[in-house]
Amino acid sequence: MTPHRRTTTLAALGVTALALCLAAGPAQATRAASTTTGSGSVFMVNPVQSSGDQSLTDQKDSDAAVPASAYAKVALRNLDGSGYLRGSWVTVQSATGTPAYSATNTFTYTRHQDQFEQVMAYFWVNQAQEYLQSLGFGSTLPGIVHQSFDVKVDQYGGDNSYQTDKPYRVRLGKGGVDDAEDAEVIVHEYGHAVHASQVPGYGTSEEAGAIGESFGDYLAVSVGLAAAKQYGWPVRAEEACPMDWDSTSYTGAPHCIRRFDLGLTVADKQGEVHYDGQIWSQALWEIRKGYQAMGKTSAAWDRTLVNSQFSYAPGTSFSAAAKATYAEALAKDGAAAAALVKDRFAARGIRF
């Protein structure tokens, strides 16, 4: 069994918040960047997904451990012009290494440099927010995490990452493959911020927590696949298998932190949010595939799913959340889509 990681709150980790100071920036920054769009190098989601090579290992942040073909040059949008990785939807903070700075908004690094993970954090949180906006959130639908969101990189010494509400931010840890090297880890944690934005105080019951972990996994895969389509990146690993680069340090091949296809039902619940979340995520994944089979898009399903979450209670049950999702599908996508939603939840033992 894989470690149960990606915890939502500090309390769940059994640690307390510590005040951390930012590393000093360049001593003599002569001028700020003049544009709000820059460029940088990132992984195409992660090296295992883009290469299909299950034998890759971390090798202590060695550049030689990952092929050059795993990187892509990307646009870094919505920067604030300060020369740092700060913008409309992301503010990157780091106490490990010097904060990335460029007077020309050019952020080209490789994985042995601390700044590479800062670029990953900026790009992928911005990408996730842009994906939500492409679904209508912030325009035709209410905005979600509609603010510059703080991301602290390598500021937790354990091999774990987590989101907190007070202060509202994500902290990405290190150890094995550093968490910010895998886009699916970054977006998973942003998924917790999505729930917190939609339902303040979300996650007060075990089943609500399981839904939170499941949604983080699902959103990570969905955003990564949408990015691969947008930029023409290869996808050579299993889709229903999140965090396949980060998990190389603690799983056997094929590497997955969790899966969407284990066939679990509510009868298999263990009372642990990460494990039990795989019950919910399989329903989400099968509904996605069902929408596609009906001639609808995965984006249509994602819009329905995310919008339904505004109706969740902080301590929602599987049954109540499934009922809210069904109602949204019926209203927005029609009776056939709603029947699919109900059927796929029922297959997991979730009835209403």
How would you sum up this structure in a few lines?
The chain has 352 residues and is an alpha/beta fold. It contains nine helices and seven strands. The chain has helices spanning 10-13, 47-51, 114-134, 183-198, 206-231, 273-293, 298-308, 318-333, 335-347, and strands at residues 38-43, 71-76, 90-94, 106-107, 149-156, 161-164, 169-173.
By helix and strand content, what is the structural category?
alpha/beta
Task: Assign an overall shape.
Answer: globular
Major β-sheet annotation: 4 strands, mixed
N-end to C-end Cα span: 31 Å
Classify the beta-strand content into a percent band: 5-15%
Helical stretch count? 9
* Adjacency order of strands in the biggest sheet: 3-5-7-6
User: Segments where pLDDT lies below 50 for 5+ residues?
Assistant: 1-30
Give the oligomeric state of the chains in this entry, treating copies of one chain as homo and distinct chains as hetero: single chain
**Total beta-strand segments:** 7
Rg: 19 Å
What is the string of helix and strand elements? HEHEEEHEEEHHHHHH
Average pLDDT score: 89
